[in-house]
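Sample A.
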Amino acid sequence: MGAVGVSAIGLSAIIPAAPSASASASASVRVDTMPTLLARARSALLTHGARVPYRDRIGLVDFSAASGVPRFQIVDIGNGRVLADLLVAHGRGSDPANTGVLQRFSNRPGSNASSGGSFVIGDTYIGKYGRSRRVLGLEPQNDQALARAIVIHSADYVSEGMARSSGRVGRSLGCFTVSHDDIGDVLALLGPGRLLLAERSNA
């Protein structure tokens, strides 16, 4: 994908029109595993308003956890259920020594690092890794995500077997990379126009 900024193509080109006002965040969300990130995500939904039109489900990535444990949750806002709890890679530039733990975020093109903050899920396309989904950064710390081709995709270097044997999974070039077994669930549950929050819960 070329280095095209969000302003050049417009959010409406890759995110559907907003649903009715009834699709709003519930005040009675109950999630036990990531309460800190959930609170931040609810705040982000208020901050970003209509830029995140669909509010039935959100994605939470806790980059304070090691890559060998599931740290990508998809949560049903309406009833607080965790619909998926998945392994996800972080970028090489975020973990140069390959420790399995993210050391830093970067928004810089060519950094091969993960970016933190709030993203909105974009459109689906078929690329090098098969079915993938774009993400658009909503904040200064991740506003180069589209230009950097930061996406959600699957790859061989993320698997439960690797996590068990090595205590970590492989590293991406900054993308949210999941296993081949999980990509179908991610694409089905976390569709365009929904929030993805990626942060360190202990920061």
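Sample B, a different protein:
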Amino acid sequence: MTAENDREFHRHLARRILFVAAATGVYGAVLAVWRSPLMAAYVAVKLPMVFVGATFLVSLFCWMASLAAGAGLRYREVLEAVFFAMSVAGAILLAMAPVVLLFVFSAAPDSGTRETMRMTHSAMLFAHIVVMAGSGTIGVALLYRSLRRRVPAGCRLILMMCLWLAAFAVVGCQLGWIMRPLVGSPNIAVEFLRSNALESNFLESLFTQIIPHLFNGGAVR
């Protein structure tokens, strides 16, 4: 690869990273603006850190998975590919931001009992998880269509893409858990990071707090 091609690759990658950071920053502000302007500013910084950080962390695993699947991709090609998927996800989140903003202010838990506010907050959080997971899945699906024309015929592409998607889900969710609060809670003070940020994990919270409040009225059954 020539020096000019190398510079062009880095410029192109930098543009993708900046776009992902900007798009997720806007969506991050939408996530938390119901809580307070300060919380919106915090999350506008933190959500890009989650998306960009998770993409870099996952890229090495994705490269190893591509080698195992016989895709014949170099690491820099994998890095470009995963940021392409995140660019698509960022574009979707940016397009969804006005709709989600309307939903947030319609559902924002500003009154009622403590339990009612917690349940409404859980519904908001679950909706955001669905939107972000859906945007990421669409990004990976479009990436699959692109890679299908580039990899050898014997490549186990579907298996490789499933591994990539699983890696994004696990790393992204856990990194988001560590960087919480991202939506904010009506019962907890506004802060940049929780004091117990490294305790527990995303899946435990999902199945013991969020889903029970949505479907069981707060009781785990």
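Observation for Sample B: The radius of gyration is 19 Å.
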